[in-house]
Design a protein that fits this description.
The protein is α/β, with parallel strands linked by helices. Helix content is about 25%, strand content about 20%. The chain has helices at about 40-55, 70-85, 105-115, 125-130, 150-160, 165-180, 220-230, 250-270, 295-305, 325, 360, 465-470, and strands spanning about 65-70, 95-100, 120, 140, 160-165, 185-190, 215, 235-240, 275-280, 315-320, 330-340, 345-350, 370-375, 385-390, 400-410, 415-420, 440-445, 455-460. The N and C termini lie far apart (about 50 Å).
């Protein structure tokens, strides 16, 4: 089936080498500028779907897969690095740490590591994934609002950067540092309280957000200054305004508030104790078309205009982008098992629904997905557009990938592809109806234009088996309750 190639392309461990980016010029193809229109990505996606059918990754016995565009992921990583290199003073320490929660897959983290991207983790599981991918401790950042003593102890022992979420956590870190010295950079997460965006669940800088020290609450700013004065090892500030639904202007405002606090602390102390600002991630993704908008270059330029001191070399920088690095490079492709009609509307019943697109199914207004239609051979489907529903396999009426969507009519044996699903979709399985996790495959050009369409696949995650479902569901303890 051609799915056992190394995802990194050459099968070699290139370590954490620097990958040189080129100048980001909007709309220009190439490693640094990329193809912001998405045209080249669409061509790669179409070729991959056809090749997946031809090579047997998709078919009656494997009716759903996740596909990852390796070329596109590499391009996004290069664009991120180039965008910040273009506005940052030479020699400034910059760590771009991928938010592991966006796509928690070891081969993806390894691919990003080789593209010069570190890891931002928010649980012991995410840290284990990053370590399995070979991400070094000094290129790892631990953020979480509920870190246990054991998690903090491990991070401090390894030298991983830690952002304390609140005064109680900082007090816990005090005790751990007294008992064992650590080389970990340590910071405080602040909530700049600049407001929310159009999606409340992804807005993290509201007045009552659960994250960080609420900067505008009475006495909070003074406490942070005092905490730094009492702890010379407290050298970072961290803020994250939110992600999808947050306008760039609000993101920039959150960074500006954090920068102003760092300047205030350093002036008060009479020394440059705060030496690094972690500005989070959150660049929103355009789910309405294939175009990449906004771009990293646009955001970096906006920050350089709004907060020029951020890039003059006095502060190291950390970013924590996730969705924007991966979303456009993933596709869930599902076979149409049945095509029917209800109330005069065609309904394509597929194998992709709430188990892979949980947010879209439950909150479609905030998380709509584009759907592409392919025929039984994996070719883009042609014909007049027909308003139809794209339904999933779960046993409840709301399990719809798309409702009332105009597409070429999907028929039995065709394929429906949910686009822009490389982040927070097929790697975040929701086990409704004990539906199996789909296999995930990376793809890249193979140089072979014959059978397989010149596309090579690498297995990222094998499809879940029925035995694994039973084991996860307590199969080894079948009689446990009957013995009580």
């Amino acid at each position: 089936m051609g799915a056992d190639n190394d995802l990194t392309g050459d099968g070699m461990d290139n370590g954490d080498q620097d990958i040189e980016g080129t100048e980001d010029t909007d709309g220009m193809e190439g490693t640094g500028g990329g193809d912001h229109s998405g045209a080249a990505r669409v061509v790669r996606r179409d070729e991959a779907v056809r090749a997946a059918v031809e090579q047997g990754l998709l078919g009656p016995d494997s009716p759903i897969v996740g596909l990852l565009d390796v070329t596109g992921i590499r391009e996004s990583a290069a664009q991120l690095r180039a965008a910040f290199d273009a506005v940052t003073a030479p020699g400034t320490p910059v760590l771009h740490a991928f938010a592991v929660k966006a796509t928690p897959l070891v081969p993806v983290l390894r691919l990003l590591r080789e593209a010069g991207i570190g890891a931002e983790v928010a649980s012991p599981g995410e840290l284990a994934l990053a370590r399995a991918a070979g991400v070094r401790p000094e290129r790892t950042v631990l953020d979480s609002p509920a870190k246990t003593p054991a998690e903090l102890r491990e991070a401090l022992a390894l030298g991983i950067a830690v952002n304390a979420d609140n005064p109680q956590e900082l007090a816990r870190i005090d005790g751990l540092i007294r008992s064992a010295a650590s080389r970990s950079p340590i910071g405080i997460r602040v909530n700049p309280q600049v407001g929310g965006g159009s999606i409340g669940a992804t807005s993290t800088a509201t007045a009552t957000s659960k994250f960080g020290v609420a900067l505008r609450d009475e006495g909070a700013r003074e406490w942070i200054v005092r905490a730094c004065a009492e702890r010379p090892w407290l050298t970072r500030l961290h803020a994250h305004t939110g992600s999808q639904g947050i306008p760039l202007s609000l993101m920039a405002q959150g960074v500006a508030e954090t920068y102003a606090l760092a300047e205030e602390i350093n002036r008060h102390l009479g020394r440059r104790q705060i030496d690094t600002l972690d500005i989070g991630g959150g660049l929103p993704v355009n789910f309405g078309s294939d175009a990449t908008s906004p771009t990293y270059a646009q955001y970096a330029r906006l920050l350089s205009e709004a907060v020029p001191g951020l890039f003059d070399g006095r502060y190291g920088l950390v970013t924590e982008f996730g969705r924007s690095l991966l979303a456009k490079h993933g596709t869930v492709v599902a076979r149409v098992e049945y095509a029917k009609s209800a109330g005069g509307r065609p309904v394509a019943v597929t194998h992709a629904g709430v188990q892979v697109a949980t947010r879209t199914v439950y909150v479609p207004g905030s998380w709509p997905l584009r759907i592409a239609a392919y025929d039984a051979k994996g070719r883009p489907k042609e014909g007049p557009e027909v308003v139809q529903d794209i339904a999933g396999p779960a046993c409840f009426a709301g399990d719809l990938l798309a409702e009332g969507r105009a597409l070429p009519l999907l028929e039995q044996g065709d394929y429906a592809a949910a686009l822009d699903t490389g982040a927070y979709y097929f790697a975040h399985h929701y086990a409704y109806n004990s539906l199996a996790r789909p296999g995930i495959y990376g793809f890249a050009p193979s140089g072979d234009g014959g059978t397989g369409g010149g596309v090579a696949f690498a297995t990222v995650r094998t499809p879940q088996t029925l035995d694994e479902i039973v084991a996860e569901s307590g199969g080894a303890h079948a009689s446990a309750l009957t013995t009580l």
